[in-house]
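Each letter names a residue; structure tokens follow underneath. Both lines appear below:
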Amino acid sequence: MWSGQWTYRGAGAPAPDKELPWAKVVVTPDANGDAKVDWQDGAVAFRDIGVKAPGSEHTPDRVVTHIPFNFASQATHPFLRTLDDVKRVSLATDGLGQLALLKGYGSEGHDSAHPDYGGNYNKRAGGLTDLNKLLKAGKKWGATFGVHVNQTEAYPEARAFSETLADKNAPGWNWLNQSYYIDQRRDINSGDMARRFQQLRDETDPNLSLLYIDVYYTHGWIADKTMEQVRAQGWNVATEWADKFERTSLWSHWANDLSYGGATNKGLNSQIIRFIRNGEKDVWNNDPVLGQSALEDFEGWTGETDWNTFSANIWQKNLPAKFLQHHDIQRWTRPAAPSTSAAACAAPSRTAGGRSRSAARRSSTGTGTCCRGRARSSTTTTSRAAPAPGSCRRSTGRPTSSPSTGSPTTAGPRPGRSARPTAR
């Protein structure tokens, strides 16, 4: 067992972190009822000490994710049209939970005027007034909302832009306009980043609950402090790549949008992480039993406008995956040798009408999982009262690497970004 490197005080920080480094270790006996002790018992026990991402309790109920897209001053999906789309989705799915991720809520639309998080809303789409109408009314239809923001690059048309904010010698993405990399360390230490996000929080309805933080490369102290400041304002977080903001991110774009981005940079493929957190996040690659949530759109993102494809994806991919997310994985078994027969996995006994019954799930793929429901009778829980030699997983308070500069070492095209959305 070991811990990563801790950073007590980041370079330029006005004071050391208030939270001192910490680590927790849990020692567990057989925790999943399979009469042996292995890493899976450690994974089950880890859930009691691990850090959960804010908002993760709502992940299993967020069945439908869609992206209303406004780009290049066109405002093809103004905010009140998006409200109509939210109603349409709700009526078509019998009220399944939604996340509508607004790309292009600010300025002239998508990838314009970053990092003006507040105070510079897309007037052609209806401005702040219609945005708040969407947020408030959408809640009645089972929808919550996120916005696409960028804390890596700044655009010269942004009201927040300055040569203090960004490095004029570090050009970033050049699409509608040349962007420049933000001095992330200075932006955090000065409080400027927190003030920009707080303006968005103050001006919008609380049903704007999520920040989708695009194209974020940085790890270590800068990433941790960024998350610390946005969490303090009550935001949930999603991001472009599955390995970023591991303790905070609820959703990864490249993991869910199967035809977008780099084919070799999709979801997390760690069996251990998925065992622990399958129901907390949507950041996974496909699994033949657990499935995978996926993104098909009808509101213009990457030119997609096919309602039938969007609808089919809900029932064929998202709903089965979301059903299983309501149950914590207890055992994950694989056959000793390849077999064409079904692999059976018995779930923990349920108590119904005074009788015990066992539920079995089968998979012809040769991979099985057993899941325990989150809300379950105490008669089915596994006691951990008696410590015994076993496996353990540790949770550390600050998994930071050495302080980062906050900017990529080279400024160039973003990895895998050859497939960019087109304005249609």
Observations:
- Residues 307-325 form the longest helix (19 residues).
